[in-house]
Design brief:
CATH architecture of the largest domain: Beta Barrel
Number of strands: 10
Protein name: Opacity protein-like surface antigen
Organism: Alkalispirillum mobile
CATH class of the largest domain: Mainly Beta
Structural class: alpha+beta
Shape: elongated
Strand order of the largest sheet: 1-2-3-4-5-6-7-10
Largest sheet: 8 strands, antiparallel, barrel
Order of helices and strands: HEEEEEEEEEE
Helix content: 10-25%
InterPro entries: OMP/PagP_B-barrel
């Protein structure tokens, strides 16, 4: 019984250690990153104007599917726009097909899906959306990166004060972050 217990203990510890190594390799393969974003958001809504927006972004390479050239990179972002009478908080998942065009410089484009909470006047609604955009990132020597992105977001319509409105908008934002 003691030998079986020892053998099982060694097996469990070995599997746990191998799993830790595999997880470390997986995280390295993901090339995860985090960034802060700031720029301009311009809603196509009468009475609303372009104004500053800000947000955060977490990104990682796709592990399930990769093209022969370039890399598919998922970008999960939360952005905020607040200019009366409109306030929007958008959560987006965008996937860009990124290509390195010069050492440490990559560009890409792709689609995304989103959910937005929009407050117009005193009424708040949730809207689903889709977007298409492009981005460019430059990585410095210490894994810090700087970038810019532009995207257009199409949203469903919702009733605000008895009138059907959509929250279609575009944004151009700069970002600074770190890749791990």
């Amino acid at each position: 019984m003691l030998n079986l217990r020892n053998a099982l203990s060694v097996t469990v510890v070995s599997v746990a250690m191998a799993g830790g190594v595999a997880q470390a390799d997986m995280v390295r393969d993901l090339s995860p990153g985090i960034a802060v974003m700031g720029g301009v958001i311009d809603p196509e809504l009468s009475g609303a104007s372009s104004d500053w927006g800000y947000g955060v972004e977490a990104s990682a390479d796709c592990l399930l599917l990769q093209p022969a050239q370039g890399v598919l990179r998922h970008q999960l972002s939360i952005t905020r726009y607040d200019d009366r009478p409109l306030r929007m908080t958008s959560t987006e998942l965008n996937t860009h097909w990124m290509f390195e065009v010069a050492p440490r410089l990559e560009i890409g484009a792709g689609p995304g899906i989103s959910y937005m909470r929009a407050r117009l006047g005193g009424e708040t609604n949730g809207l689903w959306g889709a977007q298409v955009g492009g981005s460019m990132n430059y990585t410095l020597d210490n894994n810090v990166f700087m970038g810019v992105e532009a995207r257009y977001q199409f949203t469903e319509s919702e009733r605000f004060h008895g009138v059907s409105e959509d929250m279609d908008n575009y944004r151009v934002m700069g970002k600074v972050g770190i890749r791990m």
